[in-house]
Amino acid sequence: MTSQSAFADVIDAIYDAVNGSATLAAYPANAYRLAVYDGPPIDDRSALIEIRIGATGEDYDEIAADIAQVWQSTDGQRDETIDVPCCIWTRQGSTDVRTWRRRTSDVFNIVAGLLAGNTFGLTHLFTTEVSAGNLREIQAADGAALVLAFTVHVMGSLP
After folding, report:
1. DSSP readout, 110-152?
2. At what angle do helices 97-115 and 7-19 cross, to 10 degrees?
3. What is the average pLDDT across 108-123?
4. How far apart are CA 3 and CA 128, in angstroms?
5. Which of 56, 92, 104, 150 fits a disulfide with 87 by CB distance 3.0 to 4.6 angstroms?
């Protein structure tokens, strides 16, 4: 049977790689409760650092992946690109944005290092790239929060 898309495998692999990372588990911010979510978080929001795979905001109706396919007429295969929006949320109870901006950067660099060039053992993938999108800094009555949205761009070929 010909595969129609690899998006489910790709999103699962991204989540598994980030959630199972020993580097993230050892990161000092775990003292601040780091959590990895497959999509938007539903209940427990006690983590001060959140990594969301397939979600960037508080909207529970957002796009979890953009999928595009192009037929390759010479070999009967389709090239597929999958863009998975992700983000890192950090929050704390003071107005010290500078410290948490650095923590956000540290966590992003670890995640980007885990994913860039990774094919996750999926034979139909060519490569994975990570690109930072935008950083929001929020000041509220209960302290500062930062949101770094980024995209995991995956390219592959389907038979």
Report:
1. HHHHHHTT--TT-TTEEEEEEEEEEEEEEEETTEEEEEEEEEE
2. 120
3. 92
4. 19
5. 56
